[in-house]
Amino acid sequence: MKCPLCGLEFKEEEGVSSCRGCPLARSCGLVRCPNCRYEVPLEPKFLKTLKKWRRTINETKRRS
Fold first, then answer.
1. Which of 9, 31, 33, 42 suits a disulfide with 3, CB 3.0-4.6 Å?
2. Contact predicate 16/1, CB 8 Å
């Protein structure tokens, strides 16, 4: 994920782990940037799949 405020790229797990103290941590649908603490909505599963697919295509083209 990439924070729209500070530009830091981080893993979703890192953002979820920074929400530990919040009582809504499991149900709010947001992750917190570990750098600036800005809350960002979770990426939908289809978007994650699309990004993974694009990375695979790009890696295949580079090898050719």
1. 33
2. no
